[in-house]
Amino acid sequence: RLLELDMRRALAEGQFELFYQPIMDVETRRVKTFEALLRWRHPERGLLAPDLFIPVAEEIGLIVELGEWVLRRACADATRWPPGVGLAVNFSPVQFQSRHLVAQIAGALCDTGLSPGRLEIEITENVLIKDKEATLAILQSLKALGVRIAMDDFGTGYSSLSYLQAFPFDKVKIDRSFTCELDQSRKSNAIIKAVASMCDGLDMTVVAEGVETEGQFEALQREGCSEAQGFLFSRPVAADALPALLCALN
Ligand code: G
Ligand code: G
Ligand code: MN
Ligand code: NA
């Protein structure tokens, strides 16, 4: 349990950092939102990606505390961005089991002064599998706060369509496994087009993740995606690099 002890100390000693990746408006090609992506600057092992430590944090329950740190730091960072730029934060299914989630989010908004309309909560369908009634109640409370809800990694799990009907999503993020074949496979183009058209009918925004080439971006424009995220625009960058990134992109 070395990692476990390490992680608790890391949180206390400030070894976690947030990187941000822009999500672009397809029509204007300007930054719409920054997604916060957690990193651990480990004293011996260097910069660690979340896949390496979030599962452990979930297992030991530290994710609730770590998630609160992420949310508060991200909201505080976002108050320094132009007011038109939104903030997206990832939430783990384990955080949805905490009875304090809604109060935690309301408290972070209140203490940092970030307008609720600028915050977007990203969840995967794993959140929805557990206890549908309880999850729906939480999502409705969050909507009442004025926060938006996005379904992350859309298309990779199962039963996604019934979730779109049952839960109040504002946004759907199409998993990058669909985007990477765009422009090369007629199948991917057809899938993206169909998801974009469906979401349009549901009044949900559609984001394509993992956009790496201009060809993919043009295909997204053609197929009616409203937002795009990926290395074509920028990799995730440290918070202090955002002013320069905004200048370069906008
Ligand atoms: O940053 P990267 O692309 O390596 O992220 C990998 C995964 O880690 C993604 O699925 C992302 O949703 C998840 N992730 C990144 N930051 C956070 C966070 O702050 N909280 C949670 N729960 N997941 C995160
Ligand atoms: O699951 P989620 O979408 O929250 O995680 C985002 C992850 O996707 C991050 O780890 C980020 O580094 C990665 N990512 C973002 N854009 C691209 C891209 O264009 N290509 C690839 N391969 N990965 C990307
Ligand atoms: Mn995400
Ligand atoms: Na994703």
From TrEMBL:
Domain EAL: 1-250
Superkingdom as given in the UniProt entry: Bacteria
GO MF entries: catalytic activity
Name the UniProt record assigns to this protein: PAS domain S-box-containing protein/diguanylate cyclase (GGDEF) domain-containing protein
Taxonomic source organism: Rhodoblastus acidophilus (Rhodopseudomonas acidophila)
Location of this fragment in the whole protein: 449 to 698 of 707
